[in-house]
Queue: 2 jobs
Job 1
Amino acid sequence: MQQDNAPILGQFIEGIAILTLNRPEARNPISDNDMVDALVDALTSIDADHSIRAIILTGAGSAFSAGGNLKTLGQPGGLGGDGPARTRDQYRRGIQRLPLAFEALEVPVIAAVNGPAIGAGCDLACMCDIRIASDRAVFAESFAKVGLVPGDGGAWLLPRIVGFARATEMVLTGDSLTAAEALAANLVSRVVAAEDLLETAMAIARRIAANPADVVRMSRRLMRESYGSQLTSVLEMSAAMQAVAQSTADHREAVSAMLERREPVFQGR
């Protein structure tokens, strides 16, 4: 049985996994090893389960994620507390596992950003494929404010979402964006009232889940691989994935349903 004090709470509805960061009293920091382990384990388990078509990631309480845990930062056993060489290894074996886990996923992830997403919390939202913000959300790449640089992939993630100039401004100033400013910067795709956030995320997840599961997984992988690839490589990968997609029963059902003007019935095959 899932424990209420677990770092991550999981709920499964209609083939959709809802993962909730569950350290509300500390504003859901993600730098401690128990949180990293729990989130990586949850993502790995979900990715292996082909009955799950989409993931929604949100935070318990008033915050999405405050990023690093400042109470353990620099303390013995915490990030930066055991000398430079050990700190490098702590990042590699700790919080840097998160962007790699998200990158390895084939199940699409929707960030339902319910409140502040600060520092590594902003980067966590950027690891997701789609970001929906509550009107109470705030975003900040605020590492400079605490004398740090983005240590968890933010320097790679953020420019690909908001553009190099805007990302550089966010990193160098550490200034925060309101939900409306995040929408204008293309950091999120929509802003909704706080009470509508999860239902909006669920509505998008349901539309994703309604499509053939294997095609969604391959499309998600293709989009991710296209980030840093040349056009020729992407075209070759697209051709190979299209060959697989066209061999599926779901593809044949989709075409038949369209020609017969009826709703398709997909079997995940």
Job 2
Amino acid sequence: MTDQLQNYGPVLVIAPHPDDEVLGVGGTMARLSDAGAEVHVAIVTSGRAPRFPAEQVAQVRAEAAAAHRVLGVTATHYLDCPAAELGEYAHSELNRVISDVVLQVDARTVFAPHPGDIHLDHQLSFLSALVAARPHQPAYPTRIFAYETLSETNWNAPYLTPGFLPNLFIDISETLQRKLDAFACFESQQKAPPHERSVATLTALATLRGATVHRPAAEGFVTIRIVE
């Protein structure tokens, strides 16, 4: 039986930082890849000295490469904007680099971070993703979804910032273990439970989202726009 997710491709997952894409979309990325869809990841920011030593940046990139191999990612695109400094970065430039990668991969589906995330890099990446996906262009993404990132989405201010209320659930029962294996590649980001950035917490969230739609495991998304 053909997986309908193959029609989503080419897919672009916009990750403000390495590992956001695995936390929010890892199981779905694996399922998309298995279905034959091209899956691209755009890592928006890179660490810069002195805040982020060169050795740390290199380690995280190596971890991302290993994680993406586990998930079957077609290509990883580093946009090299300054990590934890997007608030001071020219927003027109952020719009440009994200628009360029959307055009480069001819993205039909975009997964972006949720605008209610507590990290400003996530909020600004979401806004620039919407700029890049505006439908007045000759070609544009026809599906846009926002994903949740543990340690960012769950720490927003209730009632004051947009809440994450998923209305799309993708069954990852068959790919959950690959998501967990991919996150395990990020050894530098691992935390002990009950910290959100732990394999145990990722498993718990997948179980919760799955139970919402009577599946063993799922990832939840907020639908921003679908054009058919």
